[in-house]
Amino acid sequence: MALANASLDGGFQDAVFESQAVFRGLMDAMSRPGTIQTLETPAKAPGALSAAQSAILLCLADPDTSVWLSPSLYAQDALGWISFHSGAPVTHSMSNANFAFLGLGEALPDFLGFANGTQEYPDRSTTIIIELPALTGGQALVAAGPGIENEIDMSPSGLPDNFVRRWSANHGLFPRGVDLIFTCGSTVMCLPRSTQLKQREV
Amino acid sequence: MYVAVKGGEAAISNAHRLLADRRRGDRNLPAISVEQIVAQLALSVDRIMAEASLYDKTLAALAMRQARGDMIEAIFILRAYRTTLPRFGYSNPINTGEMLVERRISATYKDLPGGQLLGPTFDYTHRLLDPDLLNDSPVEEPITAETGHEPIMRVADILAGESLIEMEEPGEEETTPGDITREPLEFPLGRDERLQALARGDEGFLLALGYSTQRGYARSHPFAGEIRIGLVDVEVDIPELGFAVSIGKVQITECQMVNQFKGSAKQPPQFTRGYGLVFGQSERKAMAMSLVDRALRASEFGEDITAPAQDEEFVISHSDNVQATGFVEHLKLPHYVDFQAELDLVRRMRAEYEATQTGTATTEHKEAAE
Amino acid sequence: MQTQNALPETPDQTRKRTIEVLAHASLGRLKQFFADLDEQPEFQMMRGPETGLVMIRGRMGGTGSVFNLGEATATRATVRLTTGEIGHGYRLGGDRDAVRLSAVIDALGTRDAFKPKVSRFVEETEATIKSREDKQRAETAATRVNFFTMVRGDD
Fold it and tell me: Nearest Cα to B209, choosing from B293, B111, B333, B128?
């Protein structure tokens, strides 16, 4: 099957500088969990992948890293775009994915279904990039851990009610476990496995 | 123990400038061009490509020029460059049966389909220095002849007819081969990983190991079933097109070694095989590789592991000359603190030794006196 | 490169042949194509030209299981003509100019007005490549050993 025209557009215009800028933004977000960063890039996949998700995919994925797409993101144009601009193989197996992308409004799958790494190689785990309706205005959460001085408030919208419990289970696997990147439009917020989370007490 | 030391900046910068001067040499002579190296020192370029595990004649020649002809330094430079490039993908397995053959010989069959094609070989030269090459004497055009129409058949296929040789067939399900540039080595290795390591292994090391098998350290009764050198297409699946295209040709050398095998409880007597596949025109390396490949298959055939060439961990851990040079050459880096500590230790041990010696001497003296 | 077969080519086969011939053509030859045009086509780069690596794979014993032999440098480019056609160029090595020109020629080959010109160029280039390969084959053939069996013994 030849590539559809739509899959050719929406790559980095200047791959070197744009991927460096996106990487810098992601690094800042990952090293300061709970903060919101904006990824400035014109990159955009056709279909439901958001601008930030598109930029993260182009920046981090390559032919040596596999990508898993949730049902709402899995579409011919997007597959063509991923293959053309990143060369990353798209896998149907969550537990083999280096990166997993979750579309807006989709149920958050069980973290244990993804790669959680091994005790020897905890890095062999999935980074899950989740599109949310907003990075603020949701459940009031308090995060603590490496990269956070004392505590930080965060309130991403659209997370399941039992999210804190599920996250604590993931955190408990440390050094194994998954890392999360929440995205909304072109903004991102990170939740590495080292971060502890609890409900803000009223 | 390592301690950061500062200083020597000016010395280093001047040393590099001196290096650049010595590399250029006598300014009255024209500088050697990369094109000249590719064309006239082709086999050096091939060796750099093979052991750097990167096929690019221009870059290999550049590395060679930069390294002043030091092969391992050039291989190191090219390996380092390789790590800066993204990997676009994987080729379909090259088909050496469809090679545009430049040389093809067999030591096992005189008259084989396609014939014995000597190609541009050093064999049968007298190995006498040729004073004509001191000057730029004109060189004659090669002779051409009518090409035969018969296909240049693989020697292994001839023996396969009698089922007297181990068959090489793809597994029922094509699995993704291991990649030693992506995953750390974990012994025991698969033959796929071993072949990848041997293809980039040091020619001298593999030659010595291959030689050792001939001299009785893991005898494997080898015959050079076939050696072929030539160009093969590199075909890559292009996702945006939905089909595979050949994106160019690479020159490779292939050696099929056939080895007599007495048979085991599981396998009947037959010929087994060692395989060598190397970038460029590199017959010696391909032959050595196939000997070592066969020796390393010892456990597969239930043979006792008695010789260095059969010891996978020994062979593969030491075949990479970039790794080897890194560890050997690191010894020249400052070890001042290490050495001071050792110096202290040796002084102390010496003092203790002398103390006991004097003690013994005194006792002996006493004994003698008695 | 695959040799032509007698059946008429499908569009994919034509495209494959075009891209392969362009991948094997010299830069000088590719430039000649543009020198012969009255008007230079306008295009936009969609990807590249960029140089990377292709891992070359072999088979054990030539026919057995697959293994990774080593990498080769490769360069690729994708263009879109202002008239909308997409073209791709690939080749071993690091020649960015060559893949860019190849991509433009490939794109023109899918545009009706240019089809005959591109197909003629591909045919001529293919013939040049073939004659170079034939020469090499003929040179090798001259080094073929003809054995003479020495008859021994008495009669």
Answer: B293
CB contact under 8 A, A84 and C47: yes
The pair of three-digit structure tokens given for residue A66, joined into one six-digit string: 């596999």
- A64–B182 C-beta distance less than 8 A: yes
Any domain includes C136: no
Residue positions counted in chain B:
370
Instruction: Quote the number of domains for chain B.
Output: 2
Strand (E) or helix (H) holding B325: helix B321-329
Give tens-digit pLDDT for A120-172. 999 999 999 999 999 999 999 999 999 999 999 999 999 999 999 999 999 99
DSSP secondary structure letter of residue C38: S
C106 confidence band (pLDDT: 50, 70, 90): very high
Together in a domain, B299 and B222:
yes
Q: Are residues B101 and B60 in the same domain?
A: no
Would residue C32 count as lying in a domain? yes
Does B136 reside within a domain? no
Strands across the sheet containing B243-261: B100-105, B222-238, B243-261, B270-279
- Max Cα–Cα distance, chain C, nearest Å: 85
What residues pair up with C91 in beta bridges, in sequence order?
A: C75
Cα–Cα nearest to C23, from C125, C132, C127, C118:
C125
* Rounded average pLDDT over B15-29: 97
DSSP helix/strand/coil, A13: coil
Buried b (16+ CB within 10 A) or exposed e, B205-244: bbbebbebbeeeebebebebbbbbbbbbbbbbebbbbeee
Six token digits for residue B197: 């390591």
Structural domain contains residue C2: no
Q: What's the number of domains chain C is made of? A: 1
What's the mean pLDDT when you consider all of chain A?
94
Contact C47, B82 (CB under 8 A): no
Residue corresponding to tokens 């991509």: C103
Find where tokens 């593999």 sit: B206
| Residues pairing with A141 in the sheet | A154, A199
Of the listed ranges A17-26, B103-112, B337-346, B355-364, the one predicted with least confidence: B355-364
**Residue B53 contacts C where some CB pair is shorter than 8 Å:** yes
Whether chain B has a CB inside 8 Å of the CB on C42: the answer is no
For the segment B198-203, the average pLDDT, to the nearest whole number, is 98
Residue in C30, C71, C131 to test binding to B, most B beta-carbons within 10 Å: C71
Q: Give residue B268's domain range.
A: 96-121+150-167+184-326
Q: Which domain holds residue C22?
A: 11-131
Chains that touch C (3 or more CB pairs under 8 A): A, B
Which class for A131: exposed (0-12), middle (13-18), buried (19 or more C-beta within 10 A)?
buried
**Residue C139, domain member (yes or no):** no
Residue B25 has pLDDT above 50, yes or no: yes
Same domain, B115 and B55: no
> What are the beta bridge partners of residue A183?
A131, A188
Q: Could you tell me which residue, B133 or C148, shows the higher pLDDT?
A: B133
Q: How far apart are CA B42 and CA B40, in angstroms?
A: 5
Single pTM value for the model: 0.89
Q: Which spans in C36-112 are helix H? A: 96-109
Judged by a CB distance cut-off of 8 A, whether residue C45 touches chain A is no
pLDDT digits (tens, 9 = 90+) for B147-169: 877 788 888 888 777 788 888 88
Tell me what pLDDT residue C155 has: 52
Beta strands in B84-212 (DSSP E): 87-90, 100-105
Residues B157 and B298 in one domain: yes
Better-predicted residue by pLDDT, C6 or B360: B360
Query: Per residue in A52-65, pLDDT tens?
Result: 999 999 999 998 89
